[in-house]
Design brief:
- The chain has 764 residues and is mainly beta.
- It has a 10-stranded mixed β-sheet with strand order 15-17-19-21-23-25-27-29-34-33.
């Protein structure tokens, strides 16, 4: 439907809010109904169709004249037009014979268009509406008027709907034809199966029904002197209409200080006039109030943005899809989902169970009943507002980052504290009192931090702070958090948050303090749930396992999209894996030999084990050890591996007969020969102090030996490992006997191969 408004010149003096209110109502009707018609309606301020508004009237309307129709034409058009369940039910009750006894239906051009009796786009004017210019109006469609103000939107809905055909005549009145009838007359009953086709006394029993009188949806105004017969009986301004507290846009009298809204009953009545709904009957659209009266029931309702559900009876399976709902005392809702942008209020004496907060606001007033089922948060951004002085006994399930428990009934104190106890019992302490909220024991809050603060209205807000769930490290030389790094290596710390946070560095840049004395500085991730900090290892930084020991904001702020400041307590941790920071060069810690003592001669093998104060590796060459007898020991990779000790290197020395004799073998230096000897972090070993002596271990040399009062001199050995008969040895043998040369030597020591002719001694 398309309503084109033509403003009369009088509207030039109307307040700006007047046209806004008219546009709101026009949009409501255009959106609510799908009839493919174009209507033209003139709107006046202080007048209607050029005539002044009558004294005591908030508004007036006039339908444009349509041809006179008989009952059969109207009945057939309604039945042919009906699409919704309400229309099908109502039109099925229309009798085949004319209940008016041959009356003339004076329905107006707009309704005739809806029923296909006039061309849908006929450009002629379809009606006039006007409103009192002296009334104290409230122009806001959603705000409750002041005590002396009248709800303009409701009055506009009242008058435009009359132009659309909401005109009951009952054969005694007529807009254009004497003793006319209106379509609303066909749905007026005094008892089941009994149509009431005549006016009655004040507050008589005529009621609106679409099921042949079995169910009353509203009471008609039956007295011609008390307003239009097509209006609801409002009880002379004291209530009584089908809306909440009796207030309704279609009432014959309007109360001040209330919203006289467009209700579900009004919507159904418009359908019975031939206006086809754009949404299913269970959808509450923008501007509509769906009122479930005491003793009535409703189910499977979807409340769209701008729609309102008020319950004084019972409702089940409700979805607030951006709309709002309230339960009055005595009313109950069983099963409701409150989506983002929606508000659900449970008044004192009202009852709600099966509540799911899916991003919207649920307001539990003091004295309201919440049943025994859990209150479930689904998704984030939801708020549970508790206006009483005690938390509900319900389990609160699914509470997550972005959700809020607003304990509005208790004022926040300066020392308020929140603690998660075993079993997920959330305990609030303030004003020397404790309040317990039973969160779902199956919900996992590991690593998360609860926060508490003011809600801006004096109450206490409870929420989850964006928290550090874990810290990981990465970078060159790091695998799964493991590594051994020296100076110059870069380490990236990633703080994995429970929610995305924005880092404001306008006043400073946050840092992490590290246990090796280093500092990691924030480098990125603002707006995400992964914040990165960078640290470059410096000389002198050392630790067996890098960890975060503290954090400093330096004036920066870390907040989530809800304005909550992040908790960085979880950042102080040892990240997974072992990340050693080592900037100290490995040093030698000693050299051992095998054998440890004895006289080693040609062909003997001496194993030297070179130890460091930490694990080292050898790459790129073959190191050697310089020995004090001019020989060398060579690095043995296989023997090193066989040691299964990364702090030690194995060297081999094969004694040669030409090696200079030495009574005490010693290492004098290490020659890398192009090899790199470094620790696992890459620090080159300090080889400047490589020296060691091995007392008791001789090479090609036997020290002097004394036995039985006889001292054998120092002996030297030749290429075959036998005694060299130099002058000293020959002289001793000549003096004491050859066998005494072997004092203190192994029994396997070979004889000298040749005599020392220089001494005159001959071996026989």
């Amino acid at each position: 439907m398309q309503i084109n408004v033509v403003y009369d010149p009088s509207v030039a003096s109307a307040p700006s809010g007047f046209k806004t209110a008219v546009a709101y109502v026009v949009n409501l009707f255009d959106t609510a109904f799908t009839n493919n018609v174009t209507l033209s309606i003139h709107v006046g301020w202080g007048e209607v169709g050029g005539s002044a508004i009558a004294s005591g009237f908030l508004g007036e309307s006039e339908e444009a004249k349509a041809p006179a129709y008989d009952y059969a034409t109207i009945r057939n058009a309604l039945i042919a037009d009906g699409t919704s369940s309400a229309q099908l039910a109502a039109f099925a009750t229309l009798p085949a014979s004319d209940p008016t006894g041959g009356g003339t239906f004076d329905i107006g051009r707009a309704e005739a268009k809806a029923l296909g009796l006039i061309a849908a786009n006929d450009p002629a004017n379809d009606g006039w509406v006007g409103f009192d210019a002296t009334a104290n109006w409230s122009y806001d469609p959603t705000a409750t008027p002041g005590s002396n103000q009248y709800y303009l939107v409701g009055s506009i809905e009242h008058e435009i709907s009359e132009v659309l055909g909401r005109d009951s005549l009952l054969g005694v009145n007529g807009e254009h034809y004497a003793n006319g009838w209106g379509v609303p007359d066909l749905f007026r009953f005094s008892a089941p199966g009994v149509r009431e086709l005549v006016p009655g006394p004040i507050h008589s029993t005529g009621y609106f029904s679409i099921d042949n009188g079995a169910t009353s949806l509203a009471s008609w105004n039956n007295h011609v002197a008390k307003g239009d017969l097509g209006d609801w009986d409002s009880g002379f301004g004291s209530g009584g209409g089908p809306g909440p507290f009796g207030d309704d846009a279609f009432n014959n009298d309007s109360n001040s200080g209330v919203i006289n809204g467009f209700t579900q009953t009004d919507f159904i009545q418009m359908q019975t006039l031939g206006w086809n709904p754009s949404a299913p009957d269970n959808f509450v659209f923008n501007g509509e109030i769906y009122f479930v009266a005491a003793g009535h029931t409703a189910s499977d309702l979807v409340v769209q943005p701008g729609g309102t559900l008020d319950v004084a009876g019972n409702a089940t399976a409700v979805a607030l899809d951006g709309g709002n709902a309230g339960i009055y005392s005595g009313g109950a809702i069983h099963g409701i989902i409150v989506d983002a942008g929606s508000t659900f209020t449970v008044d004192s004496g009202g009852s709600a169970d099966g509540v799911t907060i899916a991003g919207g606001l649920v307001d539990i007033m003091s004295g309201a009943v919440t049943g025994g089922t859990p209150i479930v948060f689904h998704g984030t951004g939801g708020t549970l507002e508790i206006d009483g002085h005690t938390p509900p006994a319900n389990i609160i399930s699914g509470f997550a980052i972005g959700d809020t428990i607003d304990f509005y009934g208790v004022n926040i104190s300066s020392n308020a504290a929140i603690t998660l106890l075993p079993g997920n019992l959330l305990e609030l302490t303030e004003h020397n009192k404790t309040f317990d909220f039973q969160l779902d024991p199956n919900d996992n809050f590991a690593g998360q931090t609860f926060g508490v603060g003011g809600d801006g209205f004096g109450g206490t807000a409870i929420f989850l702070l964006p928290s550090v769930l874990s810290v990981t490290t990465s970078g060159t030389g790091i695998s799964d958090g493991n590594g051994d790094l020296n100076a110059g290596h870069a380490v990236t710390f990633t703080l994995n948050m429970s929610d995305a946070v924005t880092v404001d560095t306008a006043h400073g840049t946050p840092t992490l303090l590290l246990n090796d004395g280093g500092v990691a500085t924030f480098t990125g991730g603002s707006g995400s749930d992964a914040l990165t900090f960078s640290y470059t290892v410096a000389a002198g930084d050392n630790t067996a396992d890098l960890a975060v020991s503290g954090f400093l904001l330096h004036g920066a702020s870390l907040t989530d999209s809800y304005g909550h400041h992040a908790s960085l307590i979880g950042a102080v941790t040892n990240p997974g894996g072992v990340l050693q920071i080592d900037t100290t060069a490995p040093e030698t810690s000693g050299v051992t030999t095998t054998p440890t003592t004895g006289v080693e001669t040609a062909g003997a093998s001496i194993a030297l084990t070179f130890a460091f104060n930490e694990a080292v590796t050898v790459t790129g060459g073959t190191p050697t050890l310089a020995l004090n007898n001019g020989a060398t020991a060579t690095y043995d990779a296989a023997a090193t591996a066989a040691l299964h000790d990364a702090t030690k290197l194995a060297f081999d020395y094969l004694v040669s007969g030409i090696d200079n004799p030495t009574a005490t073998l010693a290492v004098t230096s290490l020659n890398a020969n192009g090899a790199a000897i470094a620790d696992l972090a890459g620090n080159a070993a300090d080889l400047s102090h490589v020296n060691a002596s091995f007392n008791g271990l001789s090479v090609n040399d036997a020290p002097a030996f004394s036995a039985d009062g006889l001292t054998r001199p120092e002996l030297h050995f030749g290429t075959a490992g036998n005694i060299v008969l130099d002058a000293t040895a020959s002289s001793f043998a000549a003096a004491y006997g050859f066998e005494y040369l072997y004092l203190g030597l192994p029994a396997s020591t070979p004889y000298p191969p040749v005599p020392d002719t220089g001494s005159g001694f001959h071996l026989v």
